[in-house]
Amino acid sequence: MKKILIVDDDPNIVDYLTALFEDNGFAAFAANNVKEAMDIARKEIPDLITLDLEMPEEWGPRFYRKLSQEKKLKNIPVIVISGLSGCTHAIGKAVACLQKPFDRDELLKIVKDTLK
DSSP readout, the chain? Predict the structure, then answer.
């Protein structure tokens, strides 16, 4: 079973994505801040990460930089899900960038295509 780490500080988004991914056969883990996200990423080594850019303590791009400095984690694909426009520039290597509110079918298609 493929593992997806959801990094978002909005509990509604976390609940929604967790249900969406689990209903579609994925194992979902959630973190609402960068420190928690790094701890889970190191422990679980997810197959994919969804990442919000705006979070209270640290921005998503900082998490991404930390992730890309770790040998075991640097090749994990990241899908940015953000309320900000122009999020494609924040993380150049993201496999996709969806703006909130996002289309669940589009997100699922990207996830499935990425994890083939």
Answer: --EEEEE-S-HHHHHHHHHHHHHTT-EEEEESSHHHHHHHHHHH--SEEEE-S--SSS-HHHHHHHHHTSTTTTT--EEEEESSS-GGGT-TT-SEEEESSPPHHHHHHHHHHHT-
Q: What's the CATH fold of domain 3-88?
A: Rossmann fold (3.40.50)
18-29 pLDDT, tens per residue? Answer: 999 999 999 999
Domain ranges of the chain: 3-88
pTM over 0.90, yes/no: yes
Residue range 55-96, pLDDT digits in tens:
777 788 889 999 999 999 999 999 999 887 666 666 778 999
Contact status, residue 101 vs residue 13, Cβ threshold 8 Å: no
- Convert 86-97 to b/e letters by CB count within 10 Å (16 or more is b): ebeebbeebebb
